[in-house]
Amino acid sequence: MNESIQADRFPRQELLRTLYRFQAGEEASRRVACAPGCAACCTDRVYLTGLEGGLLRGELERLGRLDLLARLMPGPGPSYTCNQLARLCLERSEPPDEPMPAEPAGVCALLDDGRCAAYDARPLACRVMASRQKCGSGGQAQGDPWWLTLDTALMQIAEHIDMGGSYGSLGALLADEGEDGQGDLLRCEPLPGLVTPPEHQVRLQQTLGPLFAAPVAGRPLGHWLDLIRGG
Ligand code: SF4
Predict the structure, then answer these.
(1) Is 80 among the domain residues?
(2) Are 157 and 169 in contact (CB under 8 A)?
(3) Cβ(160) to ligand 1 under 6 A?
(4) For the chain: N or C, fewer Cβ within 10 A?
């Protein structure tokens, strides 16, 4: 079992689910062209935390679709996690080069008949993928600068929730379960601060307020984030 979903003194799964619910609320206020059956963004270049991978595997098991895991290929992994990149930005350091993958992105192994086989447990990287216009085959998603700011913050918080756990591609995380930290897997880092353009700083603070105050296992989510940082 992935260390992220072992029982520990932090309610990480509930914190992550609370984050997912918050993101869904935000998503509901966005005008997007995305609709069921539209899956241009469902590729094998989706990166997630080990905690998210555990939820995804549990959902596939519940649905009797663990067979889909046999389709997973490790694929190219990320060069850095969201918080590593944020830390480098805040330190004004250059991030490591992101090598150009030799192969074009393939279709996500969990895409079944044009739909996500584990939609309710899809990772945050999939949840925040949205476009104002139809992308279609080869098309480009058209987002909004504010969406990017908020979604980046949520990705950073999701990583912090799984601090010390694994981070990588769907294939590397689910195919390599039990071999934590090997292959292309990276380690989740704590929040170094949120990378926010000046014009969004106040709005982000106001928007995230209810998330940090959301009760989880008797404490505000923000308090749990502090406790996780303390180890
Ligand atoms: S996990 Fe589901 S939503 Fe995410 S890329 Fe794969 S099929 Fe698409």
Answers:
(1) yes
(2) no
(3) no
(4) C
Q: How far is the CA of 167 from the centre of ligand 1 (A)?
A: 16
Q: Is the CB of 111 under 6 A from ligand 1?
A: yes
Ligand 1 center from residue 201 Cα (angstroms)? 30
Question: Which of 126, 173, 174 to mutate for ligand 1's pocket (most ligand atoms within 8 Å of CB)?
Answer: 126
Q: How many domains does the chain have?
A: 1
User: Which pTM was predicted?
Assistant: 0.90
Query: Does 2 map to a domain?
Result: no
What does the pLDDT look like over 23-77, one tens digit per residue? 999 999 888 888 888 888 898 889 999 999 999 999 999 999 999 999 888 778 8
Does residue 5 form part of some domain?
Answer: no
Cβ of 34 below 6 Å from ligand 1: no
Task: Tell me which residue range forms the domain holding 120.
Answer: 10-230
Amino acid at 143: G
Verify whether ligand 1 is closer than 6 Å to residue 42 (CB atom).
Answer: yes
